[in-house]
Design brief:
heterotrimer; A alpha/beta (about 250); B mainly alpha (about 325); C alpha/beta (about 650); A: about 250 residues; alpha/beta; B: mainly alpha; flat
């Protein structure tokens, strides 16, 4: 499972028609670390994620993994993603076992695949006998766990989590975040954790980058950025977080 | 009410200055005209190709197997059928622009004359049917929509939906046949052939309009019911506006714009429905002409009428798009 | 499979299914049984009217029309099905081409489909009839190809809808090829609408065929389908009307059968999953509120803006009445901010709607007291009540994107309040609208007032909504999740605005939210709702430290903020919020509560007064067990039960 490699965005630019969604972004996710990417709507953070996994075309710059360009074709994909909407991320007509197995590298026998699916489901604290179940019977939180298991099935070096708890009820959010931390510790994963919620990012990420209008306005270790923000926008974001603001 | 000035005015999206207001319309107009021109070009080309895709010799087919070979080849030369395809195409388009649509192989009259003689009857029929359909469907759809909004009028909905579905499925020519039987054969109240008297218009117009009116009313009702569930209708109710105000002032415009696209398709289909209805009622219009021309293999007439019908449909579609843009300002932006 | 049988439950579906089966059987059996009778020529009995021997009379060769109509079923149905097959296959190829070929070529195919779709089917059919020639084969190709663009458009739309779903993106990210994605993910998920439309299309093809043959362009002699029979029959309609009516009726019945069958299947499949669970009658004796809150009952206190007592909201549901709000009471004082917090199914939004008299007509709202500024709101919806509510109560809803009418300018929508309730002229109302937009800090108000809602950003729209509520002089603002859909910095601006309004004019606020930290920051008092009841009321300042109900404490603990302990796992609440249709006996929270005992599961705790508020719990204030142990018990959660 461990392929300690570094994900690096170098001067990445992504355009949608006439608008520039990502404008010359450079960011590094060091091996085995969790980097948080914080921004509001229109900041381009989701677009950056989609560009990394090949879902959006690069207009400029490069995205590399351990020095080599990230493969966007073929079955070997060391970069995987978990999406925001739990109700759209699983094919309603495939059992969750099949959904997870689809992402596994080809070449294993059926028994091996079944065993691996069971292992992955256990890893995300789901009952392995649920492999035969259709997604319609799962709650939002359970579906996100399946999505996590599917992302892990490809034995990725880096996982991008795009607002994975934003659509969940408050009481369930915590369970998924705990799981993310646990998996990261156990498997040594590198994670790019995208969220608009500073408090959540603070909880999971050791490094944080703040994005606005397609650009990174500030980045650094989480405790430093949040205690002593350098950019006005970061200060604005911090001030806007409801609740206790001083660690 | 004085508010604390500590609340800083945040910046919003920049408003384009007054001069730029014309821009969305200009862009929209250019796009629509462009699309119209391309579609017309495709229509003309398809019409041209239509004849050349037919296996065999169209002139021979039209003149019959007993016609002398010399006559056939003379006709072919006259129609330019031995020239290369692109040359023929160029001539065709040229003639089209100058109004020369060819000559009817059957009647020897210029096709443009045939078309101009027959067009008014079809146009009259189509326009009257269109008016009837809209005048009946819109109030009916709106009223039924209000009556059957969420949780209300279950029985009304059942009756309305069943009737409109059945009437919408029955094809216009069958309605025509039925009307001919009841009012022509049985009761003898109304004429069933030709367009000599005003009363001759009644049955054909009804045949053409009933189906589309039913479908249109159904669409409008569904859109009305959907719109009445919308958030902004809840806002209007929260403003405690009177019910007529909420239904007619807020819900109706949105229901109409939502119905316009499908409604436009229905209405342009009505244009083509004249083909069948005219054949039921021996109506002296383009519809009966195109059928007899196909049967007689008088292809130049067929070509011309196909273009006229096609252009008519495209025109209706464009008008619908313009109406939509006028009613719903977002539709212009959405395409950018 | 089960859902398909639901078609048979409706009278329409049953009729259509029976009819369709009948047509199919006739198509199969007709020629086998009656070919001879249909072909029997009788030159002595030409064009006879209906008689005992020939129920529909005879044609110009003395052949029995009824038998010919019955026998013609097979050809008519076969041709229609063949044409539909062509339309579906070509449509599938065209529609999936855009997905398979990538962006450029896909757009070209799309443009071709769009141009072709603009022309009505009959025009295309005539065009192809010319090319392929008159006769059955030509007609099949003509109608098939004429229907292909419409199918192509449908397939394209369906494919695009599925392709936009995240599971397709996930498959692409996993490296699955486009073709495989099409076959494994896209096609299975569009099969249902496709089959339904194909069935309806078959009905349409049947009718189109009848039309073409009726024109003489379809089936030619000696073969005959219904359309051909109509063509023969219409000529002699004055002599023997049945010659035309019999085939006409056959076309009608068969066309209707196919279409209605398709439509009722569509309806049956399109209906959402109906919870077939039988719900027990949840009507139980309401726990008595021992602590009246605020002023004496029956006395109007001038400082009380909103007075609610025993509010209940009930909806009709298939399994019995659904009690979404089960008897709540609270008051709001002048200038006070009261927050209502809860998860999905708690009934908090419905409380807001009920208090504002905006619950849909199918729900029933009852209360022993519901007063705004001393006026009883339970009366009928007449002009007086509307005026009062329109000027004294301001509503702010959750989704600013859809709360404004998209076809009207913003200024007019604000001015409407002025002209309807405040007796202003158009001009005066517009002036006030500009002034209100300015008051809610929208820049360039005089220009913005002439703009459409889609030209405003989300935050600006929300502020414009507030401005609309301020057209009168409201004593109370009810805001239902006003900032949930907004970015956090925009949320701050909106909340600051609300605070400024309150301070400037002593306006009371009821703020509903699922976000307990927002409520804690903005409000003076907080009501916590669970499963349609108030489970705790406390001052906002005591949320973090002085909450007594286990749910309140869990809610507060579960939300990470900037001071959360980074070394401990986040607190979670096991299970999921109660479904209002399925409230268990006893305390509704018992299933998720670490302190629950047998008494909690049978007896509903009453809402009792505490030193600073109210709480409904048998174990109020008791210490909770270690959250670390609880986090792991969320391990093997149960599945949602569906029908």
């Amino acid at each position: 499972m461990n392929r300690p490699t570094e994900l690096r965005f170098q001067d990445v630019t992504v355009c949608y028609g006439r608008t520039t969604a990502v404008d010359g972004v450079s960011l590094t996710v060091p091996a085995g670390q969790v980097v948080g990417l914080v921004g509001e709507s229109g900041s381009g953070k989701s677009t950056l994620a989609r560009a990394a996994v090949g879902l959006a075309p690069l207009a400029g710059g490069a995205i590399t993994l351990g020095g080599a360009p990230v493969p966007t074709r073929g079955r070997n994909r060391p970069l995987q993603m978990v999406f925001q909407d739990p109700y759209s991320s699983l094919d309603p007509r495939m059992t969750i076992g099949e959904s997870v197995a689809e992402a596994m590298p080809p070449g294993a026998s059926r028994a091996e695949r079944r065993a691996e699916v069971a292992r992955l489901l256990e890893l995300v604290h789901l009952d392995p006998t649920h492999a035969r179940v259709l997604p319609g019977r799962l709650s939002g939180g359970q579906r996100q766990r399946v999505a996590l298991a599917r992302a892990l099935a490809g034995r990725p070096a880096v996982v991008i989590a795009d607002e994975i708890t934003s659509a969940l009820d408050v009481s369930i959010q915590g369970a998924v975040l705990n799981l993310v931390r646990e998996l990261q510790r156990e498997l040594g994963l590198s994670i790019l954790f995208i969220s608009h919620n500073l408090a959540v990012v603070r909880y999971v990420a050791t490094h944080v980058a703040v994005m606005r209008g397609g650009r990174i306005v500030e980045e650094g270790p989480t405790d430093r950025v949040l205690a002593d923000p350098g950019h006005d926008y970061t200060r604005e974001l911090l001030a806007a977080v409801p609740g206790r603001n001083t660690p | 009410m004085a508010l604390a000035s500590s609340v800083a005015p945040p910046a919003g999206p920049a408003i384009p200055r007054t001069g730029a207001i014309s821009h969305p319309w200009v862009r929209f107009g250019a796009r629509r005209v462009g699309r119209l021109v391309v579609s017309l070009w495709v229509l003309v080309t398809a019409s041209f190709l239509m004849i050349h895709l037919i296996p065999g010799d169209p002139v021979r087919a039209a003149l019959g197997p007993t016609a002398p070979a010399r006559l056939v080849s003379a006709k072919r030369a006259e129609m330019g059928l031995d020239d290369p395809l692109l040359v023929q195409y160029w001539h065709y388009v040229q003639h089209l622009f100058s109004g020369d649509l060819g000559t009817s192989l059957v009647s020897q009259l210029p096709v443009s004359q045939v078309v101009s003689q027959r067009l008014p009857a079809t146009l009259g029929l189509a326009l009257l049917a269109f008016l009837l359909a809209v005048v009946v469907a819109v109030p009916l759809g709106v009223a039924t929509g209000v009556l059957t909004r969420r949780g209300h009028g279950r029985r009304t909905e059942l009756v309305f939906t069943t009737t409109s579905v059945v009437l919408g499925i029955v094809p216009d020519f069958l309605v025509g046949v039925g009307l001919v039987y009841v009012f022509g054969v049985n009761l003898g109240w109304l004429p069933v052939a030709g367009n000599d008297t005003p009363s001759a218009y009644v049955l054909p117009v009804l045949s053409l309009a009933i189906g589309p009116a039913a479908i249109l009313a159904r669409i409008i009702r569904i859109e009305m019911v959907t719109v009445l569930e919308a958030d902004f209708v809840r806002t209007a109710r929260a403003k405690r506006l009177s019910k007529p105000r909420v239904y007619l002032g807020h819900a109706l415009p949105n229901a109409l714009t939502a119905s316009l696209t499908l409604g436009g398709l229905i209405l342009s289909a009505m244009v083509a429905g004249t083909v069948l209805v005219e054949n039921v009622f021996a109506w002296p219009g383009l519809g009966s002409t195109i059928v007899s021309s196909i049967l007689n293999k008088d292809y130049q007439v067929v070509q011309a009428i196909v273009i006229v019908y096609g252009a008519g449909v495209l025109l209706v579609n464009t008008l619908v798009d313009v109406a939509l843009a006028l009613l719903d300002p977002r539709s212009m932006i959405r395409e950018d | 499979m089960r859902r398909w049988t639901r078609v048979l439950r409706t009278p329409l579906g049953l009729t259509a299914t029976v009819l369709t089966l009948g047509v199919v059987m006739l198509a199969v059996l007709g020629p086998i049984l009656w070919t001879d009778e249909a072909n029997a020529v009788d030159t002595g009995n030409i064009l006879a009217g209906p008689s005992a021997d020939h129920w529909a009379g005879t044609d110009n060769l003395g052949r029995d029309i009824l038998y010919r109509t019955l026998v013609a079923t097979r050809l008519s149905v076969e041709l229609a099905l063949a044409a539909t097959a062509i339309a579906v296959v070509v449509g599938l190829v065209l529609g999936t081409a855009a997905f398979l070929l990538g962006r450029r070529l896909g757009r070209l195919v799309s443009a071709v489909i769009n141009i072709a779709v603009a022309f009505p089917g009959i025009l295309l059919a005539l065009f192809f009839a010319v090319v392929f020639g008159v006769g059955a084969t030509g007609a099949v190709l003509a109608i098939g190809l004429a229907g292909a663009p419409a199918f192509g458009r449908l397939v394209q739309t369906l494919v695009a809808g599925v392709a936009a779903r995240d599971y397709v993106s996930a498959a692409r990210v996993a490296g699955v090829g486009r073709t495989r994605i099409l076959l494994r993910h896209v096609l299975p998920n569009i099969s249902e609408p496709l089959v339904v439309n194909a069935t309806i299309g078959a009905g349409g093809a049947l009718l189109s065929f009848a039309g073409l043959s009726f024109l003489g362009l379809g089936v030619q002699q000696p073969k005959y389908d219904w359309g051909r029979l109509l063509f023969d029959g219409i000529g002699s309609i004055y002599v023997n009307a049945a010659a035309a009516l019999a085939p006409g009726a056959a076309v009608l019945v068969a066309g209707l059968a196919f279409n209605l069958f398709g439509e009722s299947v569509a309806k049956a499949l399109g209906v959402g999953v109906v919870a077939g669970i039988r719900v027990p009658d949840t009507r139980r004796p309401v726990a008595a509120d021992d602590a009246p809150v605020g002023a004496d009952l029956g006395d109007h206190d001038a400082d009380v803006v909103l007075d609610v007592r025993d509010l209940e909201v009930t909806f009709p549901a298939p399994g019995g009445p659904l009690r979404a709000v089960r008897g709540i009471s609270f008051t709001v004082g002048r200038g006070e901010a009261v927050g209502i917090v809860g998860e999905s199914g708690s009934g908090k939004s419905l409380t807001a709607l009920a208090v504002s008299r905006l619950v849909d007509e199918d729900g029933s709202v009852t209360a022993s007291r519901l007063e705004l500024l001393g006026k009883d709101l339970r009366g009928p919806d007449n002009a007086t009540q509307r005026r009062m509510l329109g000027t004294s109560l301001a509503m702010v809803f959750q989704d600013p994107m859809t709360s404004f009418n998209p076809t009207k300018r913003v200024g007019r929508q604000l001015a409407e309040v002025g002209t309807t309730h405040l007796g202003m002229s158009r001009g005066q109302a517009m002036e006030r609208a500009v002034e209100r937009l300015d008051a809610v800090r929208i820049a360039d108000a005089a220009d913005r007032v002439h703009r459409y809602p889609h030209e405003f950003s989300g935050g600006m729209r929300q502020r414009a909504m507030i401005g609309m509520g301020l057209m009168g002089t409201p004593a109370l603002i009810v805001a239902d999740e006003p900032t949930t859909a907004l970015d956090v910095t925009v949320q701050q601006q909106v909340l600051d605005l609300l605070a400024a309004i309150r301070a400037a004019d002593d306006v009371a606020l009821v703020l509903i939210s699922h976000d307990v930290t927002v409520v804690g920051e903005v409000c003076d008092r907080v009501l916590v709702m669970y499963a349609g009841r108030i489970v705790e009321e406390l001052p906002a300042t005591e949320l973090a430290t002085g909450a007594r109900h286990p749910y309140t404490r869990a809610l507060v603990a579960a939300v990470p903020d900037m001071a959360t302990d980074l070394d401990a796992p986040l607190a979670t609440i096991p299970g999921r919020p109660v479904d209002p249709a399925d409230v268990p006996p006893g305390c509704a929270y018992a299933a998720r509560c670490p302190l629950a005992d047998a008494r909690c599961r049978t007896d509903d705790p009453p809402l009792v007064a505490t030193t600073s508020g109210r709480v409904a719990c048998w174990h109020a204030g008791e210490p909770l067990p270690d959250p670390v142990l609880r986090a792991d018990s969320a391990r093997f959660e149960t599945l949602v039960e569906t029908s």
